[in-house]
Specification:
By secondary structure, the chain is of the alpha/beta class. The chain contains four helices and four strands, in the order βαβαβαβα. The chain has a single domain, classed as Rossmann fold.
């Protein structure tokens, strides 16, 4: 079974996540990044880069909703495992599209 334990899980890839991620890296903590909706993976990959630049190790990224717009390939290129709970299509099928 793969090791899926983490010392710290960063929720959100915004500025608050960056600060927490950098501090976790400085402390040598095993870190995962979780974001609500991921499109291309750009914001999450910026957080991952900040963690790695601070000497941290990130092996995995998680999303609640994967939008299918390039994140899978981007995370693979960055050497990250990537998992999600729902695809955007599943959410739309279950709840319908928002009104225009």
């Amino acid at each position: 079974m793969a090791d899926t334990s983490f010392d710290v899980i960063i929720i959100g890839a915004g500025p608050g996540g960056y600060v927490t991620a950098i501090r976790a890296a400085q402390l040598g903590l095993k870190t995962a990044v979780v974001d609500d909706t991921i499109t291309t993976g750009g914001s999450s990959l910026q957080a991952v880069a900040a963690i790695r630049d601070a000497g941290g190790v990130v092996s995995t990224a998680f999303a609640l909703v994967e939008r299918g717009e390039g994140a899978v390939e981007a995370f693979a290129a960055a050497g990250l495992k990537y998992s999600w709970i729902f695809t955007a299509e599943e959410v739309r099928a279950e709840h319908g599209s928002p009104p225009a």
